[in-house]
Amino acid sequence: MKYLKTYKKIGLEDDLNALFGYFTKTLKESIFTWDYFVNWKKVAINVNKVEKELNLLNYLLGKENIEAKFIRLIKEYPDLKNVLPILIAIRKNKLAELRIITNIKTMQYNQIYSLFYNNGSTEDMLTFFKSSGLKDIFKDRTIKSLVDYCYGVEVGLDTNARKNRTGSLMENIVYSYLKELNKWYNFEYICQANSKKLLQTWGYKIEVDKYSRVFDFAILNKKRNQLFLVETNYYSGGGSKLKSTAGEFIEIERMLKKQGICFVWITDGLGWKTTLNPLFETIKNIDYTFNLELINCGALEELLL
Predict the structure, then answer these.
(1) Which of 10, 16, 17, 96 stands 20 to 30 A from 159 (CA)?
(2) Which residues share a beta bridge with 99?
(3) Which domain, by its residues, includes 116?
(4) Does residue 289 surpass a pLDDT of 90?
(5) pTM of the model as a whole
């Protein structure tokens, strides 16, 4: 922890416990906006990619002798195999990880990845169609349109990406702040900065713990010749991730400080209240750990200038 004038302005003494108390008291309950729930643009793109194939499969809905017609359609349009996984709400790239049990007693299984490509046999395709439940759904017309159905599937699959969107929301908040701040002050910043990008953009050669390390933001104050590297995240719930991230960032800060680089961690969320000890150690060992309230009070602005 390094004491800032901003802390004095909000009534905090040069005391670790005082800053820690203020930090935990002002953690945000939510940063979510309505677009957090579903990425409709992504859903529409994914559905549009397979709309033609889905409309071809619509032909089977409510048909008699559906097994024979299913096989005939697959033979006539082999690319339809590529679309079938989405009808049971799974991405094709996930199929390689799956093993389908074909005999409960012996636990014998089949790998199904190749089934949905041209080398899948007619018999295997028909087994999939029946065993997955698609035949019954198609036959009794529970589904009226596979395109509409696929929209629902994509919305459901997109909820798995909410965890990543939480991180993006925090980045967007900090980005908006930097963008506004840059209207008044002369500094440069880049998003998603790795060592290669820093070297190409500003000629800074830095050492990091791993080649794939990407910082959410890099900020350069040319007048001071000072480089800042910023990480952001938000934790709505607890878990071991908070503790491991805290330890990781403490080590990163030590490594960057030796190179004359200032590391800033902007983190928030009530998840921290479930694991206060790692948060205390973070504030103690990292010079500049801010939450959104501290940023709003001017802590980041003071640091950058």
Answers:
(1) 96
(2) 111
(3) 40-160
(4) yes
(5) 0.71
